[in-house]
Specification:
It is built from eight helices and seven strands; from the N terminus they run H-H-E-H-H-E-E-H-E-E-H-E-H-E-H. With 223 residues, it is mainly alpha-helical. The protein has one domain. Bound molecules: iron/sulfur cluster (SF4). Iron/sulfur cluster is lined by residues 82, 84, 124, 126-127, 132, 138, 142.
Length: 223
Amino acid sequence: MPDIPQLFQNQWGAKSADLGHVHVFAQPQSDEVPRTPWLFQPGAVTVANLTNLHTKIDQFFVRVLDKYPDEMSCRRQCSGCCHQSLSLTGVEMARVVSAVDRLDNDTRMRLRNRLTQKLTPDVCPLLEDDLCIIYDDRPTICRSHGVPIHVTDNTGRVVRDVCPLNFSGGGNLNNIPGDFVLDIDRINQILGVIQHLAAQSGEVPTARLAMRDVLAARLTTVE
Ligand code: SF4
């Protein structure tokens, strides 16, 4: 079992914002084999862990918005960050599927049509009239988009980045104090631990999943 507290040590000192203490609780081990990949059974502990992480990211987002209102253009119906095709961990997929299951019939029908008709393959199928139809349950990548981030790029360098619509397109990104720069590597580590524990307990599939495929299968299976 990984030394979880060790994972939460702030590897970049004062350079990146601390999300404070994010506890990840372990689920009792179960040797039950995972059910069909389209059925997700996240336990209460997994749901609490993921919700806690999402809440921390949302709080961080609001802090940046309060501090830099003129630099952030994120607002209702800005869907610039939704032109993407998402692949998600099992735990995040479970939250999305549970949200889609709670949508009303008409909304689900429209979603199924977007999925089966593949009209706009590079736009997230959960986007409708520039609004996310599962906004409260959207994945980590959607919650952290928009604020300045710290991330290790594919050359191993730790770089800062931000949505081109914010902070004058990133022009003055390096002037922002570390407390307002989100540490994406650390978030992915925490998400990795939550996913690892849930997959180990057979609650969710181990592999990353293409969101479109899972939703298409779910909606054609369930409907
Ligand atoms: S899940 Fe929602 S917020 Fe995320 S890309 Fe899709 S529509 Fe946008």
